[in-house]
User: Fold this.
Amino acid sequence: MKLEGEQTLMRIFVGESDRWQRKPLYEAIVEMLKSEGFAGATVLKGVMGFGAGSVVHSDRLLRLSSDLPVVIEVVESAEMIENVLDRLDEMVSGGMITLEKARVIRYRPEEKK
Assistant:
């Protein structure tokens, strides 16, 4: 699948310690997106942040946190993202999902020989 033109950027904000069926939530989400045929997903681990509970989590040496912020980023068609929002709603209990338009300039999947 080749993405180009206007697509949707979805960001899923969760905590590193969040779980879904005994595995890290971010891992379960990426596996679900892959099984749904998404073009790709990236998991980014934050060094510091706070959420709705206003508790600051940091990776500072003296205050090591076991719940650093994690963001999963996906660029895909609006239709594919809409198709997984109900599943994400079940999985994400203490995070946030944002959606915005994104202009894809280039995407080159590997050609299979």
The helical segments are 25-35, 78-91.
